[in-house]
Amino acid sequence: MTASYLSFQSFVDTSHKYFAASWGGLHWERQIRASAAPRRSPSGSGMSVLVTGAAGFVGTHCSLALRKRGDGVVGVDNFNAYYDPSLKKARKSLLASHGVFVVEGDINDGRLLAKLFDVVPFTHVLHLAAQAGVRYAMENPASYVHSNIAGLVTLLEACKDADPQPAIVWASSSSVYGLNDKVPFSERDRTDQPASLYAATKKAGEEITHTYNHIYGLSITGLRFFTVYGPWGRPDMAYFSFTRNILQGKPITVYRGKDHVDLARDFTYIDDIVKGCLGSLDTARKSTGTGGKKRGPAPYRIFNLGNTSPVTVPTLVSILEKHLRVKAKKNVIEMPGNGDVPFTHANITLAREQLGYKPTTNLDAGLKKFVKWYLSYYGYTRGSSKNSRQ
Ligand SMILES: NC(=O)c1ccc[n+]([C@@H]2O[C@H](COP(=O)([O-])OP(=O)(O)OC[C@H]3O[C@@H](n4cnc5c(N)ncnc54)[C@H](O)[C@@H]3O)[C@@H](O)[C@H]2O)c1
Ligand SMILES: O=C(O)[C@H]1O[C@H](OP(=O)(O)OP(=O)(O)OC[C@H]2O[C@@H](n3ccc(=O)[nH]c3=O)[C@H](O)[C@@H]2O)[C@H](O)[C@@H](O)[C@H]1O
Fold it and tell me: DSSP secondary-structure letter at 307?
């Protein structure tokens, strides 16, 4: 037995149970290295990327896109039960079939993160793990503090201590614009009026990452995603839960603003978001620190990733009805004071100029792809309300 195996084993023995279970010794260390190794490929950029929240909606799509073009990817995800964990497990299997290994663990586990950086000199971190959802923040505020504040700081500590320090690209949110009513939302607009705790934690994330950029020279890119949708999406989001209810013949609740004004979102298709994430990774300059010490200034960037064409929620419902070929039973009620904002609309000039970001999928085309995936994943056949998974 080698010395490195012994020290690894003692580390595993003293760590949490799930860690021991999911690593299981040298075999697992080999899997991590294999998954992280870039492949020779004309389109790959030779990166080794740690993707947090890899079993999530955006994490799965980004991990697949990176792996497909030849980059090395290792995922980490805690598979929490905010929404159906079996969907996260199915995404994990999809990733495994493409050679992406996802470690089951929490970003609050600093020992796990340090071990991952010991095993692999990650060049980049794509940080997507978070407690998402605007309205759930009123039900479970602690989960937002756990993942979006404490977890973020633990991750940044691990990145700052890593040698080499990775460049970090992470998901902020359009919700940071809060009550801002200047449209379209530009990165220079005020973001000091969050309307939900979720938004407040994302805004805090922007300030926290700035601190680590300033003190430790970490290269930081924050991406403000605008209501992302698509295949393998999130069951808690309106387009997904509306689809489920419409197919099951159940009513949907459509929120409306004051004075009967329709709510609107700058719905953005997942493939466009993936291109924005990869463009950010490709253009991120290196962190400048080593051994926890800054050696020079590092870039701090923030970009909107939206679609620049807001659509009202009733129009979203009509498009779904068309693709599902089923009429929705709608309850229209005034938006409760639950953290929602009346509209979002992204100005994407900065991302276009600096990342080459150019969204190409409109809501009709994107929802068509989503519905196709949904019907297939949940085992529906056209003309039947029966399915095999729900
Ligand atoms: N989908 C959107 O419309 C949208 C919009 C704006 C911002 N965002 C942000 O983009 C990121 C990805 O969102 P998504 O839609 O893929 O959400 P998601 O919930 O599908 O993915 C997040 C993943 O992170 C994991 N996770 C949560 N807390 C964790 C922790 N403490 N440790 C390890 N893993 C943890 C979850 O299990 C989940 O698989 C999030 O940061 C979210 O806040 C999403
Ligand atoms: O861009 C973001 O930063 C955020 O995007 C997403 O939030 P939202 O834009 O709120 O998406 P989503 O829930 O699909 O509601 C869409 C619309 O349907 C309305 N809505 C919603 C539910 C319902 O039952 N009825 C309804 O009318 C609702 O009032 C809204 O007008 C992410 O979930 C979030 O994680 C965050 O990151």
Answer: -
